[in-house]
Predict the 3D structure of the following.
Amino acid sequence: MSNDHDHHEQSIWEKYIFSVDHKVIGMQYLFTGMLMALIGGFFVYVFRMQLAFPGAEVLGWGIVNSAEYNALVTNHGSIMIFWVAMPVLIAAFGNFLIPLMIGCDDMVFPRLNRLSYQIFLISALVLIASFFVQGGGFGGAWTAYPPLSANANYNLTPWGSILWLVAVALEFVAFLMGGINFITTLMNSRAPGMKMYDIPIVVWMIVLASILFMASVGPLIAGAIMLLLDQTMSIGFFDPAKGGDPVLWQHLFWFFGHPEVYVVLLPAMGIVAEVMTTFSRKKLFAYKTVLNTAIATGILSFFVWAHHQFVSGIDPRMANIFTVTTVIISIPIAEMCFVYIATLYKGSIEFTTAMLFALAFLVEFLLGGVTGIFLGASGSDIYFHDTYFVLAHFHYTFVPIAIISVFAAIYYWYPKMFGRLMNETLGKIHFWGTVISFNIIFIPLFILGASGQHRRIYNYENFPQLATDGMQNLRVVATMGLIAMLVSQIPFLYNFVTSWKKGKIAGNNPWKANTLEWVATSPAPHGNFKELPTCYRGPYEYGKMEGRKDDYWPQNEES
Amino acid sequence: MNFLIEQASSFAADIDGLIIIIAVLAGFWFFVAEFVLFYFIFKYSRKNQAQSEYITGEEPELVKWVHWPHIAVLVCDIVIIFFAVKVWYNVKQDFPQPDETIRVVGYQWSWKFVHPGADKQLGTEDDIEMIDELHLKVNTTYHFKLESEDVMHSFSIPVFRLKQDAVPGRVITGWFKPIKTGQYDIQCAEMCGIGHGIMGSQLYVESEEDHNKWIQSVNGQGETLSQVQ
Ligand SMILES: [Cu+2]
Ligand SMILES: [Cu+2]
């Protein structure tokens, strides 16, 4: 990590395409994630139109048949989790923020970092290719349960299902490399004086998430290879006719799949902590509690996976154990929410767009959190499993995580990324449009789920109890909400692009924040700091402090 | 609770009861948390509070505001776990003696139901095999033997609050007791391929009299697939 690479002139090629600079790699992940979000957003537009107006031609797509419908829902889910939430929350912000916030010049392994992005890019291209092969894209749901996913006679997508699996496996490899980098960098490259409890929460959260990811993904990589062998050579790991067991996949998948929820939740909570403390001018309430609850949640998340499988044919006695662990996880999560709310106490809140998004994260995530209890409790999950209630529940967690907190982060760190501020008026239009329409989409889906509407059905006409006018109206409302939400992204995209050249010049520390990234010039140059900073205190020294005129105290300022 | 659909099995009311308990407890925390959150947002806006205080969150008189709710959440969790396990035990672990047993077989993309017929014995001559049609007698305890011929399916009857995945290579036993006559939907709740969206069946819960009439009408004989369709 010496400064040997920061003083020569770089070609555009070197600077933007094959860069080893953590900020450029972070941007590459951010832009790739945003492009993939457009694809995932287009997919949901198409299949929600089909649900609202079954059989009608969808503008920009045409008639949606059932195979296409399945491929659209499957890949919407896969894209939003693996190619949007993970790259943006962990890779983009992890890469961009970790070296800046701990006050060093780059990642410990910059070349590994570049390789990680390149493999990620390949994985995205493989996934996109899977839509265009013979038989079409994979449609067996993002959970890819065998035997359906394992056998082309069942799924009828001989190439789509293989490419989908290869893409997911490559994506895992990319994130393993990124994770190694994040953990090592935090351990070795902190600014002199930065002790454990001086590390900004968002950095902790991204690194904890990387540890969770690395600890949980192993079994699924093994599972993915087994599934690939089943698909291509009919080995039969998951085929009962050959002595295999299809439920084994579900264990491997959810052993990863549940920690994955926290892999994306923790960075989002970290972002919200940074934004909330800055704009309420308050020290984070009980820093150590936040850290401890995050660690507790991470550990507990390894013991809850079978709550996805209560009715999947596991021994029914097991369900009792997993109900206990799952419901208990509400304790650290509730505590974390309480502490975040308490952070606002006696603050002085400024409603910037970033702050609005951070607050909306809490407001919406609370609903996602409490509705999870209906599903974690085995008895009620019998009814709710695989209904729209589940779908609405996890969108009330994932949309705050992958969309709302990400917008908070973009509005907050944009000045550090590009040296200019985003427009606040457009930001507020974007905020209200996004958050209101989000609720218009998913409140009706809770009601539909509670009325027994099951998932992944391209047309409810075959189910008389679900084909009532009342339920169809709710489907139309949800689709209208979706269109409003998609349209609300136009002011954001416009703002994002135009502020780049025309936004107000930000200066180094536009929000009067404490953490070290605000010491670097905006945008931060290659090598980050003119002179590497030293850290003298924790990241959240905000408020009326004795002997200080300012209500903040940057980490690098000598006392 | 007309939020949810009708209750047509003996355990549907138990499951709905659990849902209500959770709704009350979780709903309480949800509204308290949202109320405090919004209260703080307005109370401590820059307009109302020009300068913030320096609070670490480790002051004992403040920590108690997080600590006590945290213990109260634990108590709620224990109540929820207790009722969840109780309901689960009744539905999925403790099967009452059956009056009759049926076979349910999922395959791409239909349900096949084998009814025991007039002799109430499965695996005999007079079994009645139906595609996408299940006939049950009200107030009768049934066991079902659930199988799949190809991929995962999930046998779901919303009015019964019943759901169980069908796993190829296994026979999974479950039970239910219909308590209300009528015609209801049977779903497949697990993604099972391109026909998943059409994999629905109809359930007819009949009075004893009607049920016997139905058995008569199919002649008490094992039906072949072609006759059924
Ligand atoms: Cu889970
Ligand atoms: Cu199905």
